[in-house]
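The following record pairs a protein chain with its ligand, fructose -6-phosphate.
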Amino acid sequence: MKLIVTESYEQSAYLAARMMLDVVREKPDALLGLATGTTPVPVYRYMVEEVRQEKADFGKVRTINLDEYIGLDGEDPNSYLYFMRKHLLDACRIPTGRVMIPNGMADTQAELDRMNAFADANPIDVQLLSVGVNGHIGFNEPSDVFYDRYHAVKLTQKTRESNSRLFSSIEEVPTEAITMGTGGIMRARKIVFLAAGEEKLDAMKKILEDGEVTPKCQGTILKFHQDCTLFLDKAMAGQIRPAAYVEVRRA
Ligand code: F6R
């Protein structure tokens, strides 16, 4: 794992966007693994800016998302399809034919089969990633095992509480989701990872400091990835003592 210590979260997002764009420059039909949530929003803003200024060409780019809530329609503003359209897909003119995201309204098993068939045949060139307060990646919640492929999960109370900020009440937060497995995330050729905010500090310590790789904090498995670059601002990085094998650089 490589850790790049930045001046600010804004700089982390800018550098993460550059890394994503470099992959597209090298491989115009790259398959981008995408995440939703608060953390990647400025990353997408920078990517969209580059496309608008015609400095990047997304004419062949394909995308696959980590997860989607079960029970939310793509038109629902809290669905991840809606989020992706709003923050990236529409502005970059990526048509639905090049977008793989679980359909939260379809039969769950059929969706898992569809997503897994695609993921098995199409390696992800670069996966954008953040982490939940409990160390989840995608919606792979603390567990006794690491799941490999797309599967359905029950969301923990902690995750529902954390995500309720985007809904009008916690009761509206779905209780289940479809997520790429931790195994699928680990098969991405490259991972661009960001985290920000004090509430993520505990999870980031478990991920970066010497310690066990455990499904109780799913993000710890990223220690084993061959090409994972993590961007942290100096305020957060200053509170963490990375393990010896983490290559630390200043931006
Ligand atoms: C989103 C996802 C989640 C989020 C994580 C952090 O597709 O899979 O793992 O990355 O919950 O969310 P934010 O960025 O909102 O703190």
